[in-house]
Amino acid sequence: MNTSQEQAEQLFAQSSSEMQADHFDTAEALLVKALNMDPRLAEAHANLAWLLDRRGSVSEAVRHYELAIELQPDNARIHLNFGATLAELKFFHAAEAAYHKALLVDPTLPGTWCNLGALLAQNGRDDEAETMLGKALALDPAHVAAHFNLACLLLRKGRFEEGWHHLEFRDWYHPAEERLRCRRWKGQSLQDRVVLVMCEAGFGDMIQFCRYVAVLRAQGAAQVDVLSHPDLKPLLQTLDGVGDVFAMDDDTSASDWDYWVPVMSLPLYSGTRLDAIPAVIPYLQAPADRLVYWRQKIDQLSPRPGLRVGLVWHGNPAFENDAQRSLPSVQTLAPLWRVPGVQFFSLQKGNGEREVKRFQATQPMTDLAPDLKGFADTAAAIEQLDLVISVDTAVAHLAAALGKPCWLLLPAFMTDWRWLEERTDSPWYPQVMRLWRQPTGNDWAPVVAQVQAALQAWAQPVKPAN
User: Does the keyword S-adenosyl-L-methionine belong to this entry (predicted)?
Assistant: First the structure.
């Protein structure tokens, strides 16, 4: 072995240590140096590809994966990671081929079966996907990602009892669990017990599942407290039967709970089936102190008569499927501007908020965002509207939980499990939520055309019969 090869391998070893310590920039620099000394170091190409993909340099990542595979075609993990990058790029056939190559080399890697199952589920091949995910779990019964992917598939198909079981293997709430001294609730008797419901995942998840506070009280719990995202605290204090509501950064050291439970475990231990979803609507209210302000403000902006419609067209850009679930621009909704008798209000915060000002001259919309300081304000504003039209984000859950009609625009690709399949209604929000689904691809035009026609029918004054 020559000196340059030795030095390259030493740099590769150092980079691996830096990757394990999450020092990704340092690791990348070391790998670049290693490959300059020895460009035939296959695993260095593979690790560099993973790092490049992680920071968004996907085309460069693909190049290094291809070099790694050329140098080491019998490395299943390289094929596996390459497949994941191709799937991220939505090169689905190429990703599937990469996963199959990984399985030919080593069929014992559960991660390959899991990724292949997820890919097939994303593309509507559900029976095959369930088989692949089952193989992953046969190899590793505790494989978190395989359980989660299978849970999403089963729940989307309405197979709730199986789906909740697999969802229970998620592990993202563990950091918060460390601060709690009480036992985890897993269906034990709650008679005269004090329970803490802990938030997890996103705002929409908490808004959807906080309804189970009332279910726990009905099961005999003496008190049900909630540990919440700080921004949701004022809103969750309006839940019927709720005890104390704490923000995540509040001091809870004096609390004495018998049990704690992550909020998304409540459907499992409450025995929720598709035909038995607890759905007493509304179950949230806007805080009273914000209602007065928003009633006066919107009455000034939009005197009656006239239909008041709130709009949200972008979700959190960090969400995995945001490129599909969010609209390309507020201009995608432009056909709605032609419906007479409607006053539109922007409830859009964050990504997309600037578009309201940019296109102000061409759209009849009032921007409420500057005064929306949190979910309490958003709830109070929604209470003054007749309808909310939204992409799949927390505001849609909020509107429906308040009992406000909500039209939800759903992507064809990776539609979230909670909206099930093919339905135009939601059993989670009966009578108030209407689902509008993309037929195929990423084309929102047919959806917006249908919404325009329905809005026209609603806004059109009813003529008295002769």
Answer: no
